[in-house]
Recover the amino acids of this structure.
């Protein structure tokens, strides 16, 4: 009887642990997906900032050349 109860207890504990691990694995997958999405957004923002900085530099250079040409 004692061994049967222990077997049932261990089986239940393993089943509970399996459910918890499955749940945590699903959460981890969701977090990884969210990280990948946010990384993509950050890369896009970085590209936009780089383009804006380049445009600002081109505008400044154009203004300087225009001023030099007008002088």
């Amino acid at each position: 009887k004692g061994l049967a109860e222990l077997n049932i207890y261990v089986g239940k504990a393993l089943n509970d642990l399996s459910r918890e691990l499955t749940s945590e694995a699903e959460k981890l997958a969701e977090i990884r997906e969210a990280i990948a999405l946010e990384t993509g957004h950050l890369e896009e923002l970085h590209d936009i900032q780089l383009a804006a900085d380049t445009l600002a530099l081109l505008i400044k250079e154009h203004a300087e050349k225009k001023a030099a040409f007008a002088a």
